[in-house]
Write a structure and sequence with these properties.
By secondary structure, the chain is α/β, with parallel strands linked by helices. It has 9 helices and 17 strands. The structure holds zinc ion (ZN) (2 copies).
Length: about 325
C-alpha cells in the first residue's frame, strides 16, 4: 500500500510502498479516506515528541471505511478512529482517564497512523458515524472537536452562566467557540490572524481581538481555553481570567516553562487545568454534535496524499483557518 513515512526528523515525509498492516484479533483494518493534520503533527515531525521511534506513519485524525468484518463492525461501515488505545485496567483507565494510561498506544505517535491506504486499530476505538457528515469532518473531529469538548465541558465544567475566552483560534479554538455558542454561552477570542478572528465571529464569538487589544477582555472570562500553546497565550489567559475563573490549557510546547504570579493565583482563586485530548466518550459526543449540526468541522483545504508535504508546509506557515486535511483514496 502507499504510505507517507516519517524516516527522519525535520525532513519531508517519504511516499513509499509498504506492506499492508495485518489486523490482529480485536482489531479492524480500515481503508483510510481522510486524515486531519494539526499542530501536534508538526511537533512530531520536528522530533519534539519524546519517545517517537522511526520509521513511523503519522496521522492521528483518521476516518475511513471498515475493510473486513470485525466482531462488531461490518465491512463498508464508516468509522472515525479515537486516538488512544489504553489498557483498560490501570488506575487511570478505571477512572475514565484513559489518556493518562502509561501503556496507552497513540495512533500516529507510537503506532502507525492514517497517512496510508490502510490502518489497523482496536475495534473498540473505531467509532461509526452516519453519511450526514464527510470523512474529512469525522476525521478532524477526533482531535479538533474532541479536545475542546473535553477541555470545556469536562475539565472546565462549563456552566450556562459562564463566559468563555478562547486564546488561539486555530483548529481547536474555532471548534471551542462553536461548542460554547451551541450552549448559548458568550464566547470571545484572541488571535493575531485577522482571517481567524473573522471566522470566529462568524461561528458565534461575540468579540474577537488581536493580542494587542486583549486588555478589553481583562476580568471578563470565567473560563479560558488556552489553545495557542505559546507563552504569550498563557500570559494573556492569566491576565484576562476573572477572579474564581478556570484556565484549561490544551496547548503546550515540550520543554517550555511558563510562569504564574503566585498572588494572582492564590488571591484570585484561579484554577489552572491541564487538558489532554479527550476521552472516548468525548470523541463519541463530538461525532454526534457534528451529525446534529451543532458543530461544523472547519477545514481550510484538502490535499491529496501525494501532496502531503505541501499540507504540512501550509500548516507550518500558521495562517490556515481550521484544519488541513489529506484525502487518502
Ligand atoms: Zn491533532
Ligand atoms: Zn490503562
Amino acid at each position: 500500500m502507499r504510505a507517507a513515512l516519517l524516516t527522519g526528523f525535520s525532513r519531508p515525509l517519504q511516499l513509499r510502498e509498504v506492506p499492508e498492516p495485518d489486523a490482529v484479533p480485536g482489531e479492524v483494518l480500515i481503508e483510510v479516506r481522510a486524515v486531519g493534520l494539526c499542530g501536534s503533527d508538526l511537533k512530531l515531525l520536528a522530533g519534539a515528541t519524546p519517545g517517537t521511534s522511526l520509521p513511523l506513519i503519522p496521522g492521528h485524525e483518521v476516518a475511513g471505511v471498515v475493510a473486513r468484518d470485525g466482531d462488531r463492525l461490518r465491512r463498508g461501515q464508516r468509522v472515525a478512529c479515537y486516538l488512544y488505545e489504553s489498557c483498560g485496567v490501570c488506575r487511570w483507565c478505571r477512572r475514565d482517564q484513559e489518556v493518562l494510561c502509561p501503556s496507552t498506544r497513540r495512533l500516529g505517535r507510537n503506532r502507525d497512523g492514517g497517512l496510508a491506504e490502510y490502518v489497523r486499530v482496536s475495534e473498540r476505538v473505531a467509532l461509526p458515524f452516519t453519511d450526514t457528515i464527510s470523512f474529512a469532518e469525522a476525521a478532524v473531529s477526533m482531535d479538533a472537536v474532541t479536545t475542546p469538548w473535553h477541555a470545556l465541558l469536562g475539565r472546565a465544567s462549563l456552566g450556562a452562566e459562564d463566559q468563555v475566552l478562547v486564546v488561539g483560534a486555530g483548529g481547536l479554538g474555532l471548534h471551542a467557540v462553536q461548542i460554547a455558542a451551541a450552549r448559548a454561552v458568550s464566547a470571545a477570542v484572541i488571535d493575531p490572524v485577522a482571517d481567524r478572528r473573522d471566522a470566529a465571529l462568524e461561528l458565534g464569538a461575540g468579540v474577537a481581538v488581536d493580542p494587542g487589544d486583549a486588555g478589553r477582555l481583562r476580568g471578563w472570562p470565567d473560563v479560558v481555553i488556552e489553545a495557542s500553546g505559546t507563552e504569550e497565550g498563557f500570559r494573556l489567559a492569566l491576565e484576562c481570567v476573572a477572579p474564581g475563573g478556570r484556565i484549561a490549557c490544551c496547548g503546550y510546547r515540550p520543554g517550555s516553562s511558563w510562569t504564574v504570579d503566585s498572588a494572582r493565583l492564590s488571591l484570585g482563586e484561579i484554577s489552572l487545568l491541564g487538558s489532554r485530548a479527550g476521552r472516548l466518550d468525548d470523541a463519541v459526543a463530538a461525532l454526534r454534535a457534528l451529525e446534529a449540526g451543532e458543530v461544523r468541522a472547519i477545514i481550510d483545504r484538502h490535499y491529496p496524499l501525494d501532496e502531503v508535504n505541501d499540507a504540512v508546509d501550509a500548516l507550518r506557515q500558521g495562517r490556515t483557518v481550521g484544519r488541513v486535511v489529506v484525502d487518502v483514496t
